[in-house]
Amino acid sequence: MHHRSIDTPQAAVLRQIEEISDEMISFLRELVHIPTVNPPGENYAAGAELIGSKLRQFGYETHFIAAEGSSEHSERYPRINVFGRMPGSRPRPCLHFNGHFDVVPVGAGWTRDPFGAEIADGKLYGRGASDQKAGIAASIFAVEAIRRAGVRLQGSVEQSGTVDEESGGFAGVAYLARHGWIGQDKTDFVIITEPTNVDRVCLGHRGVYWFKVVTHGRIAHGSMPHFGISAIDHLAEFLHQVNSRLRPSLATRKTSMPVEPPGSRYASINVNALFGGQPEEGPQTPCVADRSGAIFDRRFLAEEDFEQVRGEVRALLETLREKNPEFRYDLEDLMIVHPVQTDPACELVAAISAGAEEVLGYRPALTASPGTYDQKHVVRIGNVHQCIAYGPGILDQAHLPDEYVRIEDVVTSARIMALTALRLLGTE
């Protein structure tokens, strides 16, 4: 920065970030204190209210958007999103920052209060600190630093805090995109503030196919199993096919997308759940299981055609049925997400790369995500193609016990977000 005269808007904004960094971290602590745990979707109203009141305080026109009519939304666990708009001297270009404020369940193994937001050794601990409440704090305060520095933007800024990303984002970003809050007719750029270790920009993600296979048998007495047909045995045969035939084939398919970690550049399949027969608790009776099943998580590549991905599973099941006329099954699609990738040469990627280089001294790596996040809805429903993920927080910390974010990273990412906004939106 030293080569510039000190009165540039950039320099004024960066100075302002230093001045408000304590305020940013105390807001982040308040956000981590609220246990917005999903499932089932607790305290969403409180999370939305905290973010919304901060946006109102900072001059945004603010809306609370309940996902009315979505299957996830209920009286007990309302799905409430918050949306703020700060118009510039003209409506476009419009830069939209989005972050999800739901967090995964705490899980075992914590040595600190998961919602205590304790600070130690420059780290702020808590469930959701990295994934991704730090990103929400960073984007709100990045734009606030511009406002407090007295710099007037030409384009407009929006901020949204949304729910349910951890369970697919259907009552969150998908709902906003479907109802016209985010869309190509009004939104030019979207930065989703997921954790990318501060020095990476995430361009997209692989595809997901979640499916359920249920096998059907015939009940009989366990002492006379020859009178029955075991659905569990049939499921075991399918699992054997998946492990011995499908999995080795997937391990040879590699994407050209820069997925991190590199092990996730290959197509993969995982068994999420297994069920069948009698519940494990309680007394057992001697019975041949007449129903069994499993839920699978298949990650597919941009280079794979979805119809073939599903067809491959169906073909394995059909092979078993041809061999054994008593093999009966159902295959049910649970979730289908197609891969997305933003053009690395687009204006948004160029602007954030330049901002990062100015702050860090080097250009950020361009990566893709092994799992999906809400970019799928921005691109597929909202039709906004300049969409990336960028934020503080350590990707490898997401969902772990003793999750933390480095405070210095939150401040650094706010600097980069602010410079990116200045570059994309222009100043008066």
Automatic annotation (TrEMBL):
Entries under Gene3D superfamilies matching the protein: 3.30.70.360, Zn peptidases
Residues annotated as domain Peptidase M20 dimerisation: 204-321
Keywords noted in UniProt: Cobalt, Hydrolase, Metal-binding, Zinc
Cofactor entry: Co(2+); Zn(2+)
InterPro entries: ArgE/DapE, Bact_exopeptidase_dim_dom, Peptidase_M20, Peptidase_M20_dimer, Peptidase_M20A
Superkingdom of the source species: Bacteria
Pfam short name (any one): M20_dimer
Gene Ontology molecular function: any one: hydrolase activity
Classification via PANTHER family: ACETYLORNITHINE DEACETYLASE (PTHR43808)
NCBIfam families cross-referenced by the UniProt entry: DapE-ArgE, PRK13013.1
Family from the record: Belongs to the peptidase M20A family.
UniProt protein name: Acetylornithine deacetylase/succinyl-diaminopimelate desuccinylase family protein
